[in-house]
Amino acid sequence: MKSRRMKLGGLLFAILACSLLGGYFSMTNNGESNTRLGAGETLSLVKPVFAQSSSSNITFLEEEAGMSVWVNIDATLNLTKAKSAYKYIEEETSEYIIGAVSLPGYPETEDVHCFIQKDGWIVVYYLRHEPTSKIIDLKYYNSTTGQLTTTKLQIGLEKVVNALGISMTEAQYYNFQYPSADEWMIIIESIETGTEDSFRIMIPSEFTVYEKSWSLYTTAYGVHLFVDGELIGGAHTADGGWAYGVLSQHFLSPDAFHTITVRRSYGFGTQHAAIILIYKEP
After folding, report:
1. Parallel, antiparallel, or unpaired for β 271-280 and 230-236?
2. How many CB atoms lie within 10 A of CB 110?
3. pLDDT of 49-95, one tens digit each?
4. Averaged over 191-208, what is the pLDDT?
5. How far apart are CA 18 and CA 209, in angstroms?
6. Labelling 73: which of 103, 124, 171, 226 has CA 20 to 30 A away?
7. CA angle 275, 276, 281 (to 5 degrees)
8. What is the C-alpha separation between 37 and 204, in angstroms, rounded?
9. What is the DSSP code (8-state) at residue 190?
10. What's the Cα-to-Cα distance from 30 to each of 199, 200, 228, 263, rounded to whole Å?
11. How big is the CA angle at 64 (ends 62 and 66), to the nearest 5 degrees?
């Protein structure tokens, strides 16, 4: 398949396309939308060139990193300047820096990790045991304008780039935990009226799905996510209004439609829910 190189803005536009239920959808009598994985636009996962060589001195990413965003500035980077972006340094040599970068407005649990190599590579990532959905904060999704303006990884990347005082034109995503995966998709549902909304999704058995995760956001009291009627998780304003997690493998079994429902506690406010899939096309 063709890998897709895109600017950050283009990437987020593609996320929007996925959030509109993937291209193939139809309205059923109960108002649900149906989406079939693989029928609509997806996002490519592209492995950085430096990580494709067994002689690379940063193979630690294969063991440590999960979902990541990366760029190659194609210029020598000033590691001394880069250090100002870090909350703390985990490892430092004359050639690279590894450490944690805090995100404005987020608790320490949401700190991202960052690898900067002097020859121009920057990789911002979460750890491999953390769900892909951790990168998504649905407060940045506007169901009216249809825009998801950023991800947590992008916020971290921009903080590092600003510290370096350089410009950046394009970035790509890759999940080091699943090297065989070549696509990912984000499907977003928002409650427009009433107390709940839902859609249905079917994953063909010829697709290999490596991870299924979820994200929730609310501005008023609480919101909950259900898969085929089973409660998966909830987000509450008292806890920041957002939550995320992993779906167990038995959810969303292949070759059958499954109903994803988002339900709020009260009839007002803004509520969004997302399902994020990491997979390989046949």
Report:
1. unpaired
2. 18
3. 877 665 455 678 888 999 999 999 989 999 999 999 999 999 999 99
4. 90
5. 16
6. 103
7. 125
8. 7
9. E
10. 10, 11, 15, 16
11. 80
The tokens of 40 are what? Answer: 């609509």
* Token code pair at residue 247: 């779906």
**pTM for this entry:** 0.85
Which pLDDT band, with edges at 50, 70 and 90, does 41 fall under?
Answer: low
CA angle in degrees (0–180, nearest 5) for 171-172-178: 155
Sign of CA dihedral 213, 68, 3, 274: positive
Residue 257, classed as helix, strand or coil, is coil
Q: How many helices (H) and strands (E) does the chain have?
A: 4, 18
Which amino acid, residue 124? V
CA–CA gap between residue 275 and residue 19 (Å, rounded): 9
Residue for token pair 């350089």:
166
Distance CA 172, CA 166 (A): 18
Spans of all domains in the chain:
8-280
- Six-digit token string for 240: 């920041």
Q: How far is CA 22 from CA 44, 71, 256, in A?
A: 14, 27, 17
